[in-house]
Design goal:
With about 170 residues, this protein is of the alpha/beta class. The chain has two domains: about 55 residues, no CATH class; about 100 residues, Zincin-like, CATH 3.30.2010. The strands form two sheets. The chain has a three-stranded mixed sheet with strand order 1-3-2, covered by helices on one side. A three-stranded mixed sheet has the order 4-6-5, covered by helices on one side. Strand 2 and strand 3 form a beta hairpin. The chain is elongated. The structure holds zinc ion (ZN). The site of zinc ion has 5 residues, from helix 4. Zinc ion binds next to helix 4.
Length: about 170
Amino acid sequence: MPKIEIKKSFRKSLTMRFDRNGTLQVKAPIFMTNKQIQGFIDRNKSWIEKQKIAKQNSQIDPEKIPEYKKEARELIPPRVEQIANKHGFSYNTIKITSAQTRWGSCTSKKNLNFTYRLVLAPQEVMDYVIVHELCHLRQMNHSKKFWNEVATIMPDYKNQELWLKKNGASIS
Ligand SMILES: [Zn+2]
């Protein structure tokens, strides 16, 4: 959940919006109890998460997107190849996508997709997404076997998962 600031005032209904710092500003009627406000926030969790993602995505300077894409095409495929070679994975193609909420994916035809947004993530997060998708070449699921495979290559992958969660996008 994002940082939340609650302000009560003489108003009839509750509103929520993200400010430019990514804090959720909640304006609530003065008669509402904190428990009621919290209940409202809890019930709207998925809306809040979606808004947060939209907000983060809109923070990418549109003029810089072609630059990021170019960078992604230069950086990601060699890195995938390097990691794949080191751990004996073989894949078909690599595509750089503009996916907004998905960092990477892997198809049954062994094609790997990565969003250009990965160039904005820390290196170890980019590596994790690559490792994650490569492991799907062996396990097309999120079974225990899959996670063991990931952990063998990247023992601290949970830190990277956390970063991805905080930065609002999913990995599949
Ligand atoms: Zn996955």
